[in-house]
UniProtKB/TrEMBL annotation:
This is Uncharacterized protein. Signal peptide: none annotated. Keywords: Membrane, Transmembrane, Transmembrane helix. PANTHER family: PTHR43044, QUINOL:CYTOCHROME C OXIDOREDUCTASE QUINONE-BINDING SUBUNIT 2. It comes from the Bacteria. The chain crosses the membrane at residues 6-25, 45-66, 86-106, 113-134, 140-157.
Amino acid sequence: FYSASFGAILLLSAALLALAVAVALAARQGTAALMGQAQNHTNLLLALSIIWIYVEATTLIIVWGGDLPHEVEFYLKRLEGPWGGVAALWAVGGFLLPFLYLLTNLPKREARYLLPVALWIPLFRLLHLAWYVLPALGRGVGIGEVLGFLGLGLFFLQRLRNPS
């Protein structure tokens, strides 16, 4: 199954990941690097999150409403069993919680409040990517996938501490 919206979903997801990493790196250098820009960065993160979930949700609704077996199978593999829990986790943790946090005035007024959400978003972007790719392997998640996922997260955190 393929859809033209998958490219848009992955592009928006990558843009959200890149912006979150850029904000995290700037916040790591201190609030002076983001001085006066906290509201702009917050609004960009918020806008990209909204556009991403909109395209994601409309794709699901269109595919599910079309009820074509070869298309619905893509979502059936990802919404049943343990992958259903992963889908709920990234929907709540990857969209709802950051969305609600970014709506508050804290990250808009002070750049230091952007750092938690800027670190949170990349973890769920990677989980979202795993949700797209791993169920297609036709088996459960093995230790290799878990270690690879954790390794990417540790690599990101290590690079955040030591950029050189």
